[in-house]
Amino acid sequence: QVQLVESGGGLVQAGGSLRLSCAASGFTFSQAGMGWFRQAPGKEREFVAAISWGSNTIYYTDSVKGRFTISRDNTVNTAYLQMNSLKPEDTAVYYCVCQKTPLGARKLQSGQVDHWGQGIQVTVST
Q1: 108: exposed, middle or buried (Cβ count in 10 Å: 0-12, 13-18, 19+)
Q2: Residue from 89, 88, 91, 110 nearest 101 by CA
Q3: Which residues pair with 95 in a beta bridge?
Q4: What angle do CA 17, 43, 38 make, to 5 degrees?
Q5: Least buried of 33, 53, 61, 85, by fewest C-beta within 10 Å?
Q6: Pairing label, strands 78-83, 18-25
Q7: What band does 102 get if pLDDT is binned at 50, 70 and 90?
Q8: Is the four-CA dihedral 52, 103, 64, 62 of positive or negative sign?
């Protein structure tokens, strides 16, 4: 069975940093696009970032460009989201996602998701 297990969330002050990790299993990680969505209270679920299987293609939503960095390590089946210069508006539940096709990153950007993690809370205080 597919599993996407997020870790690294928590509480941080505005301007600080967090690094989210997503440990993946149950599918061929090296052939899948990986990404992150988030959902703040009272808001729709929002695309954050995606990365292709070989890290050659990366997408970010405009609000996180220059602050967040998505990456992956195919040797340990893990995707990451480094979040710097965090703002209170980044507060949300963050979900790891995968799309198991060669164009997975592009599909994730457009909202086509094969599997979702359970989500992990990120809270940025003022």
Answers
A1: buried
A2: 110
A3: 37
A4: 40
A5: 85
A6: antiparallel
A7: confident
A8: positive
For the chain, the distance separating the N- and C-terminal CA atoms, rounded to the nearest angstrom, is: 40
- Chain-centroid distance of CA 19 in Å reads 10
> Is residue 49 a contact partner of residue 81, using CB atoms and an 8 Å limit?
yes
Nearest Cα neighbor of 111 from 97, 91, 92, 123 is 97
Question: What sign results for the dihedral spanned by CA atoms 92, 98, 102, 107?
Answer: negative
Neighbours of 41 (CB within 10 A): 7
Q: Rounded to 5 degrees, what are φ and ψ at 102?
A: -60, -25
Report d(CA 86, CA 104) in Å as an integer. 27
Radius of gyration of the chain (CA): 13
Q: Are 124 and 14 in contact (CB under 8 A)?
A: yes
Contact 49, 36 (CB under 8 A): yes
3-state secondary structure of 18: strand
Residue pLDDT, tens place only, 6-62: 999 999 999 999 999 999 999 999 999 999 999 999 999 999 999 999 999 999 999
